[in-house]
Write a structure and sequence with these properties.
Blueprint: E1 5-11, H1 14-23, E2 31-37, E3 56-62, H2 73-89, E4 95-97, E5 101-104, E6 107-118, E7 123-132, H3 152-156, H4 162-183, H5 185-194, E8 202-207, E9 210-219, E10 225-228, E11 234-237, E12 241-244
Helix pairs in contact: 2-4, 2-5, 4-5
The protein binds biotin.
Biotin binds at residues 13-15, 37, 40-43, 46, 48, 57-59, 101, 111-113, 129-131.
Length: 247
């Protein structure tokens, strides 16, 4: 990962640029990084706040030989890599909230957005989009954010070297992806669970009109969240917003 890196000053979205490059045949491991995004994309059609000069916005092209239904496993490569990079560059304690938010002190510092091009039997390519709030200050966050957000600098109380963070993150991504290809999903799932903020907690998952409440038992091989609900029923959710309930 990172043998080819396209660095851009300003883009609409690094995911869109990477997706176009992948369609034109860009090799596995190609990375697009930008200083500023004018149309940063979040999950569920939301916007990702992407001011210039302070954060990391990057997208990685992967071409794993897997069935499309296993593609969500690869999101965990990026969330574990972000956790790893934060642990290696700061003294903060990050956790992962399913599916892929990385939180520090209960507030979101990073978001991940994976996009896929696939036929029924085969993944053509995946784009892993990674956004990390690094040196953004309080005034740069919009007031109406859905979830409380923060940056590494706010939480660590010092400026973080963006380039060094990017380097460490790419190293982690590379090692985790290589391990995934060699050993499969299980070791990655274990690492994800070890950093999970939701494991064993009671959560409320909202997806449109649908609300499921239960205790988190783990994640399955399709990236779904497995919950134990009232009456001993087990439920699996594949998408939605998780709120951790006070116990
Ligand atoms: C989320 O939590 O909603 C996901 C946010 C993902 C943001 C990153 S920034 C780099 C890449 N390009 C985008 O347009 N989005 C992702």
């Amino acid at each position: 990962i990172g043998t080819r890196i396209t660095c851009l000053q300003e883009v609409d979205s690094t995911n869109l640029v990477a997706y176009r490059l992948a369609e034109q045949g860009a090799v596995e491991g190609t990375i697009v990084i930008a200083d500023h995004q004018t149309g940063g994309k979040g999950r569920l059609g939301r916007r990702w706040e992407s001011p210039a000069g302070v954060n990391l916005y990057c997208s990685v092209i992967l071409r794993p030989q897997i069935l499309p239904l296993y593609a969500p496993q690869l999101t965990f490569v990026s969330s574990v890599a972000v956790v790893d990079a934060i642990l290696r560059t700061t003294n903060l304690q990050p956790v992962i909230k399913w599916p892929n938010d990385v939180l520090v002190n209960g507030q979101k510092v990073a978001g991940l957005l994976n996009e896929m091009s696939a036929e029924t039997e085969r993944v053509d390519f995946l784009v892993l989009g990674i956004g990390v709030n690094i040196n953004m200050n309080r005034e740069q966050f919009p007031v109406d954010l859905r979830h409380p957000a923060t940056s590494l600098a706010i939480e660590a109380g010092r400026k973080i070297d963006r380039l060094q963070f990017a380097r460490v993150l790419l190293e982690s991504l590379d090692a985790l992806y290589a391990a995934y290809l060699a050993e499969g999903y299980e070791p990655l799932r274990r690492r994800w669970l070890a950093h999970s903020a939701v494991m064993g907690r009671t959560v409320r998952v909202t997806s449109g009109e649908n609300v499921v409440v239960g205790v988190v038992e783990g994640i399955d091989e399709h990236g779904g969240l497995v919950l134990s609900c009232a009456g001993g029923r087990h439920e699996r959710v594949l998408a939605g917003d998780v709120a951790i309930c006070n116990e």
